[in-house]
Amino acid sequence: MPPAQTRAQKAPGGAGPTHDIVVIGGSAGAVAPLRAILAGLRPGSEAAYFVVLHTASGGNLAARIGPAPGPLPLVPAEDGMAIRPGRVYLAAADRHLLVEPGTIRLGRGPRENTSRPAVDALFRSAALAYGPRVVGVLLSGLLHDGAAGLDAIKACGGLALVQDPDEAEEPGMPRSALATVPADACAPSAGLSAALSDLMARPAGPRGAGPEDLALEVAIAAGRTTSGEAMGRAADPAPITCPDCGGVLSQVRAGRVLRFRCQVGHAYTAEALADTQEDTLGDALRLALRIVKERAELVGRMAGDARRRGNTLVAGMYEERAREYDGHVRTIRRALTVESDDREAGAEPETGPAGGPA
After folding, report:
1. Which residues are CB-neighbours of 203 under 8 A, at least 6 positions away?
2. How far is the C-alpha of 357 from the C-alpha of 24, rounded, in Å?
3. Active-site residue among 120, 145, 213, 244?
4. Which element (helix H / strand E) includes 246?
5. Is residue 166 annotated as part of the catalytic site, yes or no?
6. Tens of pLDDT along 55-96?
7. Could you report the per-residue pLDDT of 301-357, keeping only the tens digit for each?
8. In principle, which of 101, 119, 189, 209 could form an S-S bond with 33, CB 3.0–4.6 Å?
């Protein structure tokens, strides 16, 4: 069969090309709905499918999914591999899965929302390469990856299918997408395959203009060098530090999703950035607690030594400082308790694999 860029699937009655590029993303809790989708695919499909699920660094996506649940083969993606219809391409560990017209690319670009591969990176590349022929599918997952990518797909004329967050094992990703992107369909796990078939059968519309910085963001995910001038045209500097590299973040102008990028290319939605900052704050508080406790211990020993030598004035000074440090310890412990309570009340517990390193 010819590569996917040479022909597009025709709608019934010759109404024009339909949707023959399907990109699927998820995280924790996404394996079961993914297998349900794959089980419902028909033999001889003229579409190509691409899958990113967040895995720990070095994790094997094929091992997570298990044997192919449907008629189409599962193919580990390789850089430069030709895209063929009737195949399901799986992201490689610690590489962004990207598509160009007719070709797969594995990108070494920076992490997005702390993940590589990132769902947003795949979705954007498909939107850039295939425009209205793309259907983006977002499944169960933690946090917020995928919403910005779905937004790009929609802006380029493609369609969006989102798992119903009310029945998703982890509703964070689908809920975030539905809050910002007008999805074409939302279905529970058992109905995703049928909903996808319905969307794929629709005639593809005209290509949308898409975000003006879409090509730049795909290039960043691929690991290609980009200029600070190009980033300056796409984003406005913000007085916020990148948690990954310590550089200055800029607010991306395009799209419905509030996002930030640094000059290195690390990318965050506002929600993912806030979650990462909370983690950093907790780490800083725990480090401060250890340092202050050790300082209190040291000053207490110095006070005891001064008393043994009969120097009551110096001993009293050290004892007063030890009491001050003990007060600081209590203050930091209260701050840690508040930080922990806030996270338990406002965040979903992390139960799935995390993203790989930068």
Report:
1. 11, 15, 16, 17, 18
2. 22
3. 145
4. none
5. no
6. 765 578 999 999 999 999 999 999 999 999 999 999 999 999
7. 999 999 999 999 999 999 999 999 999 988 888 887 776 665 555 544 433 333 333
8. 189
Task: Please report, for the chain, the start and end positions of each structural domain, with discontinuous segments joined by +.
Answer: 21-201, 226-267, 272-346
Q: Which two tokens stand for residue 91?
A: 């992201």
C-alpha–C-alpha distance, residues 152 and 358, integer Å: 24
pLDDT digits (tens, 9 = 90+) for 122-175: 999 999 999 999 999 999 998 788 999 999 999 999 999 999 999 999 999 999
Tokens of 142: 């933690």
Angstrom distances, CA of residue 351 to CA of 22, 115, 142, 143, 205: 27, 15, 9, 12, 39
193 is catalytic: no
From the candidates 19, 20, 45, 54, which is the catalytic residue? 54
What would be the CATH architecture of the domain defined by 21-201? 3-Layer(aba) Sandwich (3.40)
Residues 150 and 27: their CA atoms lie apart, in Å, by 15
Check if 250 is active-site. Answer: no
Give kind and range of the element (H or E) at residue 114: none
Give the active site residue among 19, 20, 27, 125: 27
